[in-house]
Structures are given as C-alpha cells and as structure tokens.
Amino acid sequence: MQPKFEMHALKIFALCTAAFAVQKLYAPFTGLFGLDSSSVLQRPWTLITYMFLHANLQHLVSNMFALLLFGLILEKVAGSKNFLKVYFASGIASGLVGVMFYDSIVGASGAIFGAMASLALLRPSLTVWVGYVPMPMVVALFVWAAADFLGVFVPDSVAHIGHLAGMLFGVAYTFAYLRQFMEKPERRYRIRISEETIREWEKRYMLAPKG
C-alpha cells in the first residue's frame, strides 16, 4: 500500500513565506512568536511557531529550497503523516536543545535537517549535490553534520547546535518508526487467493477429464 502523499511540505513553504511577509510588515511579530530562552516555559507554543519565522530573505530562501527539495521527496517516500511527525518533532527537539545555548532562535532549519536525516536513511543512495560535488544522500548527511559541528566553534549567527539536534532526532525517529515505510516490492504485489478459489481451480483444470 502506497503511503498517502498530500504535499504538506508545499503548505509549510507557503506558511513560512507568508509569515516572513508579516515579519517585514510588522516588526514585533518576530518577538511575539520567536523562540526565546528566557520565556520558553511561559510560552511553550513558540517551540512550534519559531519554525515558521526567518531572520532574513537569504535565511528563508535557503531553508525553503531545502524544504521543497528534500521535504517533498521524504513525504512521497514515507507518507504525509510521517513527514509531518518527523518534521515537527525534529523542530521541537532542535528548539529545546537550542535554547540551552542561544538566547533566541528562529527558522525551520532544525526541522528540515531532521527531515533530511530521515531521507538519508530511507534513501541513502539518492544522489545530491553538496557545493558542486555529487554524492549519495547518506554521505551528504555526514558532510552537513561535520560542517555544523565545526561551525559550533566559529562565532556566527547560526544555531549549529540546533541543526545537529534536529539531525540526530531525525535519525533516531527514523530508526524507531519510519523504516517500515521503505519500499518492499515483494510485498506490494502479493496477491491473496482464498482456499475456496484454489479448490475451484483444481476441480476445473486439474481434475477435469481429458480427451
């Protein structure tokens, strides 16, 4: 049975784009729904809403490109329901870890890295380009993880630890739940035949008088 595919990744893309437009039109919007380490206990819903906000246009474009590219493939492979689970669960895990190291966080990166990690396990041989180098998805995952690990030691505005947390959660979730959604052709085309049907065939074609 093929997993249900409803293109939720495209809907998340639309919501993130709309939220960014509101951020530009109404500056306090980011502070209201962004993830802040000092108020996360009082505003737990921001563990979800922060995923729809972005710091600038470049941040939005890079995240949305990855969401459409990898998110839609994962959703097709694992089904829309499981895509949403791994996406938002990875984003929440990324936020929970991130607030231990950063004052405030916005962006879908942690959730997207979780989805990418899940896809790397389900389709390890899928060819992707990292820079200008083609490589299997599972190898690319290690490259991205190494880049974020090194980025932890370089002062910048990127929540590298949050990325790693989302990635690790995506791996753990996939091992626990999503492996069952890998394609199994030998099961997909199995035909169930009742015992009564077999006996009827025997009477008609195997036990019938010849000549």
Strands, helices and their partners?
Blueprint: H1 8-25, H2 28-33, E1 35-36, H3 46-49, H4 57-78, H5 80-98, E2 104-105, H6 109-122, E3 127-130, E4 133-136, H7 137-151, H8 160-176, H9 185-188, H10 195-206
Antiparallel strand pairs: 1-2, 3-4
What does this structure look like?
- The protein has helices at 8-25, 28-33, 46-49, 57-78, 80-98, 109-122, 137-151, 160-176, 185-188, 195-206; strands at 35-36, 104-105, 127-130, 133-136.
- Residues 183-191 and 205-211 have low confidence and may be disordered.
- The protein is built from ten helices and four strands; from the N terminus they run ααβαααβαββαααα.
- α5 packs antiparallel against α8 (160-176).
- It is mainly alpha-helical and 211 residues long.
- Helices cover 62% and strands 6% of the residues.
- It has a single domain, classed as Rhomboid-like fold, CATH 1.20.1540.10.
- The radius of gyration is 23 Å and the shape is globular.
- The strands form two sheets. A two-stranded antiparallel ribbon has the order 1-2. It has a two-stranded antiparallel sheet with strand order 3-4.
- The protein starts with 7 loop residues before the first helix and ends in a 5-residue tail after the last helix.
